[in-house]
Amino acid sequence: MVNDEVVNEFLLESYENLDRLERDLVALEATPRDKEILSSIFRTVHTIKGTSSFLAFERIEKVSHAAESLLAMLRDGTLNFNRAIGNSLLALVDTLRRLMANVESTGAEGEVSVDELIAMFGRLRAPLAVAQPAPVATPESVPAPEAAVASAPPAETPAPPAVVAAPVTTTAPAASVQPPATVPTVVVEEPLPAVIPPPAAAPAPVAVQLPPPAPVVPSPVSIPAAPVAAPAPVASPPPVVAQEHAEGGDEPKGGRSLADSTVRVDVTVLDRLMNLVGELVLARNQILQHTVTQTDPSLLATSQRINALTTELQEGVMKTRMQPIDNVWSKFPRVVRDVSGSLEKQVKLEMEGRETELDKTIIEAIRDPLTHLLRNAIDHGIERPDVRVAAGKPAAGRLQLRAYHEGGQVNIEIVDDGAGISAEKIKRKALEKGLVSPERIARMSDRDIVNLIFMPGFSTAEKVTNVSGRGVGMDVVKTNIEKIGGTVDVHSRPGNGSTFKLKIPLTLAIVPALMVGAGGDRFAIPQVSLLELVRLEREDAARSVEFVQGVPVYRLRGNLLPLVYLSRELSLPEAGDPEGALNVVVLQADGTPFGLVVDEIRDTEEIVVKPLGKLLSGLSAFAGATIMGDGRVALILDVLGLSQRAGIAASLRDSLGSGAEEASSVADEVRQTVLVFRVGASGRMALPLSEVARLEEIPADSIESLSGRQFVQYRGGVMPLAQVSRIVAPDQPAVAWGERIHIVVHARDGINVGLVVDGILDIVEEPLRIQTEMSRPGVVGCAVVQGRVTEVLSVADLVASTGARLPNHSEAA
Amino acid sequence: MDNARQLCTFFVDDLLLSLEVERVLEVLRPQEMTRVPLASEVVSGLINLRGQIVTAVCLRRRLKLPPPPDGWKPMNIVVRAEGGPVALLVDEIGDVLEVEDAAFERPPETLHGPAREMIRGVYKLKERLMMVLDADKAIALPTAAERSSAA
Question: Which domains does chain B have, with CATH numbers?
Fold first, then answer.
């Protein structure tokens, strides 16, 4: 490491400058006429050149110098900005970063070659460009209009977003009427040059005082995407259009070059401050504990004062660690530009909520996951322009990043309007890879199926691109998010795109928590996961806890809440409440509430979260530890981890179990709505409600027979009927149909099949776990429903019996 | 050239073990511990070290030696480790000894089992053998192989 203070200062500043340079370059592509951005870029490179020369960093100086010459031409208007120039300047940023990284670690620039880059700058400056500023104006095209980032297929004459600007109104001397011909030749690759107005020209109409550059007036006239060659000296729009959509990078004007009254502080100093405040909080807790028993008024007053001061100090210091999420997002315009470019897609990036603040440690932790999700959205979500246009969508895909605070957490959404995620495709892949058993998949909703993409080993990319497809991405994203106590979830609209939603805690450091006791030990539960507390006195307790296949549940206002006994989960001695009451802490993680049964409920306290050491990090039940007011250590429960363990435990209780039940079943396995119906005079069967489209009652005489099969006219179509009792219990006397018939309508892909049952008994919420599989026609197996062994209907068999052929029937035969 | 080094010595069961002084942060009297449910049996619990939460590893269990007797009050040797300090629970603390590199030998053949993996070598002292503990291995969790090998 280099010890030289001056060099360190240089590096620090340069890294910041390079970041800004990068943002400016991406913004410049969208608004190539913006002279403020251009000046800023020029200044930055100039500064780097100057200081590096002073410090004798030759390569940095050489390459900056070459870039500066190029930039000077751009600034003066003797050269037109284009994508090739943009690429070269971004390459400059990358090269400079590499050089500086070498300086940082070894003190010398190392072997990074700058000759190619310098040569490229030379080429770009070549006098193919307008020697005389003349031409200017006229055909102007702006690459990548609508999007802060867009990729134009090189070598195609008029890239779609070509905007032709024209001097138009400019009477102006000079220019105006130069044939476009000259302009394009400047560009090495792209036939779409853009003209940068000379510093003097303001976006005001004409005012052509300058001989050289053409007074191009950007007037808010929308331009049809006309090819560059089109001379038509009319139209402008680029700036406006671009500005309209100029997100991604910074706003070119305002906000950037403000001199902020800020102070630069080393992060380690802040961390130390934070630790000290944490310790202070603990000491304050201890004081409060002791003073509870004191009566000395001045002591009480002073400790109250300390309490108040500590709280304020804590809030203040936490604020220093809060950073806007823009710290992570600011790099994304470039990422989107590069990725979409390499995949030949067009993407418009929008960011909302950039100022949303998060704790610094969390910001670091979400950087990689967010980047991956972004790349994934461009790679898999957004379609190629031609596909999009064919589907009636705009050629450029829309990628939205949204962040906002809600309920003590930060929500981050990544929304794309691409193709969405096909549940069928996911289902197929999951079955192919043996990640999930067919029975389990059959019971999953589309939404659950789509969320399977987070399983390890999952990747549906047909070909592995540079960007994604190795099957290690999504599950790592999920793990990393969960590591910081957050959750991630995806929601897809087939044909219309997907939304990835992340929920992460505001801060990890100091959180309010509920203290509980179990098995003789104390544990802390972060309040953010706490929904409510329920206490059932002894008599109620016995009555209210129902058992569904050995899994205890409690009916809370009509909803079934699975219960998890903390002492059992942690293999601790079960003490139970001294009065035999049941203390239930209703928690929620990842959307599914559950009830944690503890021996006692104590106070809520503010605790300082301390990480568990490496030795213990594998324990999913704990999120960390803290030091209580009495100096002893207490473990902090990981609500998500517990709920997952509970899900596992519940499925392990599956005695026979189809064996195909995966150990990693998630808590959502527990709830399912089940339809219980009558078969024959007294038989009963069950069916997952998810297989039921509608329940109907129709008059018996509306049933029509045709060659031994029954049909009914239904909703404008013909629906075949299958009589359950006939298939399932053929030797039992059929129940005579009354005047009205009960039909359970099963639908798939718009085709309806009616299952005739002898009566609807109930709809309950219970886990439906097939215990034994049967090879009886019409029956999938047995499960315990409402405390009784009940056969579960095989919809597939019933449908098959009607002779109807339904596409994509997923139930295993 | 300096051929000598300093080692902190301590007793676990009837073994005399040692660690380089550079790895030892401090030595503590028996501390109040909070047990960690579901953790590996070598983790005795967590201790509060001036505000820092330190994991305590029972060396007897880690080395697959006879478990500690009831009412055991172990001394703590806090060692420096990559993920933060870890406390090793030992029976007794010995002296700091200076030894010559030349006297260092590979672990004896008679030593077998998991203990062997965690011993870097031995020094022949006047009356007995002193073994050098590999601190990093000692504070790591037992691998599957170690767990399955008969104690």
Answer: 4-143 (2.40.50.180)
B67 secondary structure, DSSP code: P
Q: Do B48 and A635 touch (CB under 8 A)?
A: no
| Beta-carbon count within 10 A of A661 CB | 19
CA distance to partner chain B, nearest, from residue A594 (Å): 21
Q: Which residues of chain B are within 8 Å of residue A626 when distances are taken between CB atoms?
A: 53
Give the class (CATH, top level) of A510-652. Answer: mainly beta
User: What average pLDDT does the segment A422-440 reach?
Assistant: 83
Q: Where are the domains of chain A?
A: 5-244, 267-324, 326-504, 510-652, 672-802
Q: 3-state SS of A411-436? A: EEEEEECCCCCCHHHHHHHHHHCCCC
* Residues in CB range of A730: below 8 A, 6 or more apart: none
Token pair 């011993």: residue: B119
Q: Which two tokens stand for residue B136?
A: 């990093």
> What's A672-802's CATH class?
mainly beta
CATH 1.20.120 assigned to domain A267-324? The reply is no
- Do the beta carbons of residue A436 and residue A662 sit within 8 Å? yes
Over the Cα atoms of chain A, what is R_g?
34
The distance of B3 to chain A (nearest Cα, Å) reads: 30
Q: Which of A106, A156, A109, A92 is nearest to A1 (CA)?
A: A106
Any chain A CB within 8 A of the CB of B144? no
Contact B34 A615 (CB under 8 A): no
pLDDT in tens, B19-73: 999 999 999 999 889 999 988 888 999 998 877 889 999 999 888 888 888 888 9
Encoding tokens for residue A176?
A: 């105006």
How far apart CA A688 and CA A691 sit, in angstroms, is 6
The burial class, CB within 10 Å (0-12 / 13-18 / 19+), for B98 is exposed
Same fold, A510-652 and A672-802: yes
CATH superfamily of A326-504: Histidine kinase-like ATPase, C-terminal domain (3.30.565.10)
Q: For residue A112, is pLDDT > 50? A: yes
Q: Return the closest-CA partner of residue A727 out of A622, A677, A802.
A: A802
